[in-house]
Structure formats: structure tokens, C-alpha cells
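The records we work with from here on pair a chain with its fold. Taken together, the C-alpha cells spell out the fold as the letters spell out the chain. To see the layout at work, look at the sequence and C-alpha cells printed below.
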Amino acid sequence: MSAPATDNRSYYRVVYHAILMLTVGLIAGVMLVFSLLGAVNFWPFPIWHVDIPGSTRGWQAAHVGGILNAVMLIALATVMLKLRLFQQRLTQVSWGLIAMGWGNTVFYWAGNVSSNRGLSMADTHFGATDVAGMLAFLGGGAAMFIAFILMYVFAGAALNLSRQS
């Protein structure tokens, strides 16, 4: 059996994607401001009154959720390195974290512009199903499924290490 991986490429891969997700979360903050104002306002340029798609609540969720999503990924990538995973598992976990993070990002953005908030593939009391809602549901559902698998892997690795100490 080979030794646990000491290669940091998987860590940096996750951090790179987390920074991209953080950027998307910050852009959602700009959209939140535009949503609150009902206009695009870049001083000293003229104000453009526009109807921003989605809701203020949805942009708040996309902003805060996007930032926290990125922070979670960086934290979990740091933990990932401490779990002494073998290279193949480390690679799998890093790609799983990336897929989970982008799935959450898609959920926040698509759910905000969907009629049913992306909570179902069918009509709900929030509204009728649409393409954005289905995309949000699939992104969020996949992210949730991957998250449970990753937490199982992380917990198992941590438990094994705790028994060795």
C-alpha cells in the first residue's frame, strides 16, 4: 500500500475554484445593490433604471451564501490535507468539493430567478416549474448528495486518525 499523499495540487485546485465562487458571490452583492435601488448606479455615470431579475431576498442569499460557500470550501480543503488521504482519494475529494461548490452556486443564482425558487422539479406553492428552477434543483440536489458523501469520507478518515493517536 502506498503512503498518504503529500501533493498540494488538489488543495490549490479547490482554492482556485473557491476564489472563483467567492467572486461570483461578490458579484451577487453588486446585484443585490442594484436590486435594492431598482437601477444600475455607477457614479459618476447616469443611473440606468432597470428591472433586475430575481428578488432582493434571493440576491442576499446568493451573496452571503456564495461567500460562505467559498469559505467552506477553503476550510474543507485545509481539513482535507490533514486527513492523510491517499492520492486517488485526495483527487476524488478535491473534485467532489469543487462540484459541490459549483452546484451550490448554480442553486443560488438559478433559484433566485426561478418561479419556484428551485426547490422542486415540479410546481410548488411558491410557483410553477421552469428551466431555471429545474437547473437550480439539479445543482443544489447534486451538491447536497456530494456533500453527504464527502462528510462520510472526511469523518471516516478523521475517525481512523483519532484511533491511531
Notes: The two ends are 20 Å apart (CA to CA). The CA atoms of residues 28 and 97 lie 21 Å apart.
